[in-house]
Amino acid sequence: MNRIVKILGVALCSLLLTLGLTPVLVAQGEPLSVQLIALNDFHGNLEPANLTFTMPDGQRIPAGGAEYLATHIRQLRQKNPRTLLVSAGDAIGATPLLSALFHDEPTIQALDAMQMAVNAVGNHEFDQGYVELLRLQKGGCHPQDGCGQRPRFGGAKFQYLAANVIDEKSGQPILPPYKIYTFDGVKIAFIGMTLADTPKIVSPKGIVGLRFQNEADTVNALVPELKKQGIKAIVVLVHEGGLPTGGYNECPQLSGAIVDIVKRTDPEVDLFITGHTHQAYNCVLDGRVVTSAASFGRLVTEIHLTLDRRTRDVRAVAANNRIVTQDVPKDRALTRLINQYKALADPLANRVIGQLTADLLRTASASGEMPLGNLIADAQLAATQAPDQGGAVVAFMNPGGIRAELSAGNVTYGQAFAVQPFGNNLVTMTLTGAQIKDLLEQQFDNPVVGQNRILQVSQGFAYRWSAAAPAGQRVQSITLNGQPLVPTQTYRVTVNSFLADGGDNFTVLRQGQDRRGGVVDLVALEAYFRSRSPLAPPRLGRITN
Description:
This protein is α/β, with parallel strands linked by helices. It is built from 14 helices and 29 strands. A six-stranded mixed beta sheet has the order 6-5-4-1-17-18. β2 (52-54) and β3 (60-62) form a beta hairpin. The longest helix is centred in the middle third of the chain and has 18 residues, at 332-349. The protein is globular and about 80 Å long.
């Protein structure tokens, strides 16, 4: 497609769709209209409880929930029989108890019920390793837990795409790199992939033998292959994103990794559907539409592709982010599915494990410290402090593993699970003081989502950091129980198994010696609540910026 024509078509159609008008086509020939409904970062949020979306004026409105999402999708399908539901990754992983308790099979079934077509793999699709991802695609009972009282899991009817995830032995993608759909003789190719930095943010043991390739290079290598098949309409589903300005349907500016990806990608690509950053935006970048629908199914992106039947290319793209409001009827099929699993999960989820005197938040201070992060680190230290449990003197918790907040009053197992849904075991290891210093310096060498990753620390450990200091010298005044950390002395340190394997790019932890496995992180948190309730949020001040 001529780039100038494309830019004009994109701008005109986007404006008209925003105004609720039908795009006007100036090119000759009868057009073909195809509708895409796009999701990203659903994370198994099947139930609507506590799901809200913040409007540009700061008002928070109820939004999301699979039963409402399915209804909105069905209503959009009624606009155009040529409709596909697509996803830019992280449909599973870091999911609430209702899905995670059953290894995310309920989420797969829910997306199948909504007639999902394709889903690009995201980093969270690898939370349980790529072998488990393949099981979710192909079907079968869980290798450890089996199928329980449920029928054998049949696998996803939709297709996972993994163009840039390569099996090093075969040299081939572990899942198809793209899928082609044909509408009235016109083919559209969907290329799906995750961010190249996935190895930095998942457990290394789950991706042994895999290579994650550059996003733009991967697409550029596939475009000639698609063109040989006569395909000129190309959509990229990529689990990488940006940080926008403006409202959820605007994009005055966009920064982040996706900007370079789009600019380096072959101009034959017509549309980028993105994710990972949990942001909502509707952009035109380098003449192409770039979208993201926030997270958790609170938004969907309605996209209209206008194709030329003669050239088989995209003439215009119009996109619109829509809030999944809860003022529509619930989809009955999704209600039945949710109720089926709730009957199994509720007795566990509703069990009270303790009490809080005030809300326990994960809002970070200027130093990166969180009240909830402090409490989790304290719980992990308490679980591994005894000599026969590891002999730990300090615990560190990654902020990305803290997925929800806790309200004052009774705390249930289900609520605690939402905070720590990954099921990581605790690992206690020996590090030198110098290695702990290196570990803390790696917090600032880790801008995967455009910001530092400040580890949460247990009580008795403290340090200062300065962003203005040179790299490798940003951490200062490290103390343990009031005493300076000695570089040559050894210390017993507890982290979760994700970090212990070098997750989040904290590679120093791979050097830890005399490792001892511990309980699951959630078990440690529950034990901490049970032995100390009612609990007050820990004070800040362990980390100083």
